[in-house]
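Protocol step 4 of 5: obtain the predicted structure for the target chain.
Materials: sequence only (see below). No template structures provided, no constraints applied. The aim of this step is simply to have a reference model before the mutagenesis design in step 5. Sequence pasted as it appears in the construct record:
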Amino acid sequence: MLLPRWVTPLAAEQQQDTPECKRYAFTQAHLGTVVRLVFYSADRSEAKRLAEGCFERVVELDGVFSDYRDDSELMELCRVADKRATSVSDEMFTVLACAQKISKQSGGAFDITLGASSKAWRMKRAAKEAGPLPVRGAGDYRDLILDGAGKTVRFYKPLQLDLGGIAKGYIADELARILKEGGITRLAVSVGGEIVLAEPPPGRKGWSVDLEDPDQKVLGSMELSHAAMSTSGDSYQYTKIEGKRSAHVLDPSDGRGKNDQLNITVIAPTAMQADAWATALRVLGIDKGFALAAKTDLIEAFFAPAGSASLKTKGFPALSAQKTGK
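Step 4 output (structure tokens):
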């Protein structure tokens, strides 16, 4: 799990505030998680206006990607796309295109067609019911066809999509874009576990982020800037099904939650890519996942299994001992 310590700044960071460059932090609950914005601006009213615009955009995109809302664009797509080619918004097409690319690159370890299994898992968790999950039905990412020229989507068979492993990353990227277009250069955005970092706070080399193992123990910290990252694991989101631990990350091969305790953090050019790749590597597990991450361009990954040594790809930053800010 990622713990962004810039949400509550270190004492040394707080001392960098000046009238020309003041730190602002805004937090709201959305998407079943917490959306956080931290950035530096010389104008208090402009900072507030930009933050309000960001949160309004989150609400708009929830109406595009949510599978909890019957009136979302996603749910309407799932109702009709097996019957006809369906036009979608630019936002939807961007996310679906990225999802399909990573599905292919990961050999199907990332698959957004798990919607029916995802909803069954959520119901089990909410009701704390015993008994197995239903076996996943036929169909996979290859049954979803995109037409880039017309920005249309067609299903070969009825499908239920779940964008939970990629849409929050896209939203984090969007919020960073809004802030940058508003003239903000020093910023950090998090949407749950999906993070975008631009230029660091004044006087610092980067934004401070801690990494946890599956037992919620902090393994170390790193300072990053101009990067996006995501963690996939089950430190906080899991349930018990048939007496076994079941993570919210489902294996596309059978629709069941992973039961090996493992946290994977991915650094990528965008939070959307990091989000999807973290999910794919979590599904593959430490052996296959590490082998794929090591040979995949544009990403770096950190694997933290419960009870054994961590692994990281060659370009992943080294962790330092946790800082106290004193």
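Step 4 remarks: The domain at 73-155 is CATH 1.10.3980.10 (T-fold). Confidence is low (pLDDT under 50) at residues 8-15.
Proceed to step 5.
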